[in-house]
């Protein structure tokens, strides 16, 4: 049960960080695509 909660927290934190970065345009689109590929390999 604890593992499920921590993984959910990690995912939600990742989504929040992703949205934050998109709003502020901190990184370019090319880097975003690289990050998306890395995230897909993690899950």
Spans of at least 5 consecutive residues with low confidence: none
Terminal Cα span: 19 Å
Describe the main β-sheet briefly: none
Mean pLDDT: 78
Helix amount, in percent? over 70%
Q: How would the global form be characterised?
A: flat
The arrangement of helices and strands along the chain is HH
Describe this structure in words.
The structure is a single chain. With 43 residues, the chain is mainly alpha-helical. 86% of the residues lie in helices and 0% in strands. The chain contains two helices and no strands. It has helices spanning 2-24, 29-42. The longest helix has 23 residues, at 2-24. The radius of gyration is 12 Å and the shape is flat.
């Amino acid at each position: 049960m604890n593992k499920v909660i921590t993984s959910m927290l990690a995912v939600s934190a990742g989504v929040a960080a992703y949205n934050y970065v998109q709003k502020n345009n901190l990184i370019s689109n090319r880097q975003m695509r690289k990050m998306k590929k890395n995230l897909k390999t993690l899950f």
